[in-house]
Amino acid sequence: MRFHFKTSYDTDIDLFPDWWKRGLYLALLVFAVVLPWLIDDFFLGEATNVLIWSVAGLGLMLLTGQTGQVSLGHSAFMALGCYACVLMINAGVPFVLAFLLAGVITGLIGALVAVPALRLHGVYLAIATLALAILADDIIVLLARWTGGVNGMYAPPITILGYEINRWANPAAWYWLALAVVVMVTAAYRNILRSPLGRSFAAVRDSEISAQAMGVDVARTKTIAFGLSCAMTGLGGALMGLFAEVFNNETFNFLISIQLVMMIVVGGLGFIHGAFLGAVVVAFLPQLLSIITGSIGGGIAIPGLEAAVFGGILILFILFEPMGLYGRWLKMRTWLELFPFARKDMFRRQKSYLKTERLR
């Protein structure tokens, strides 16, 4: 078992608790950078897809995992970020500026939507945001003059400092672009958590009544959380549309929102690592199902199989491992560190709500 000897209060908010974790994540970053030389183009494309899902998952994780607000409408904000970015690029705005502005625009609109929506709680908020996701599909069709409607749009070429990034001609460049965005969003996420705003998020998540008693403006905190969450998700949507190269209203349907929720629950709700582990599941599970059905069923497609498997996995994790994959790893690590003194009851689930909030 390792112990951390802290000599200042700054140690509590350091990005890395010790030199071991710092070296571990540095090694992981180096491995991610050199990955294009270790795998072929197919798996590199899948790795890029994992990174894109991770960006979108981090956005929803900030809202649901850190602030406790359930949203089933983040597919709408992914679509908004995608169309905003593409329309600005088509208007002549440089890619980097258009990409960042797409995140800002999505975050501002998300904050405006949050003002009336966050008056709701629990399942009612989930239903309201789900209605927003379904409505977004119709809005894209109605605005066909700018969005292309059901015919969709073609993603414009991406150029950074005169260097064109093409998925098919240079997949490694696309991978590094997605990796750079992931590092940027993860660093922003981590710094938000260790700020006073991040402490407010945790207070609102654990108990709104207690947060109010401590002087936290609950409505303002929820609105900021929703705006930041939508901004991150909008960046993920922009990457997803550009990576797909062709997209329409069906690309960002409400099933994407369900997959995002499943991703953060399976990965580990409330953990940054959980967004990445869940992204691996969401990105690779369809490929695994395709391989299995191809070898067993002779390539015959089974309608609804993917949705059924995703739903089954979500139910199993909610029932047997609500802390997700990363929570399971934490339990295993703790058991190994305390062996032979670890006991099964150490991980017994306990109620964490207040009596005054049971029916909210």
From TrEMBL:
Keyword Cell membrane: yes
Signal peptide as annotated in the record: none
Keyword Transmembrane helix: yes
Transmembrane segments: 23-39, 45-63, 70-89, 95-115, 122-144, 173-192, 224-246, 252-272, 279-302, 308-326
GO (cellular component) term, any one: plasma membrane
Alphabetical UniProt keywords: Cell membrane, Membrane, Transmembrane, Transmembrane helix
Subcellular location: Cell membrane
GO terms assigned for molecular function: branched-chain amino acid transmembrane transporter activity
Main localization, broad class: membrane
Family matches, as Pfam families: BPD_transp_2
Membrane topology according to the record: Multi-pass membrane protein
Name of protein: Amino acid/amide ABC transporter membrane protein 2, HAAT family
Organism of origin: Gemmobacter megaterium
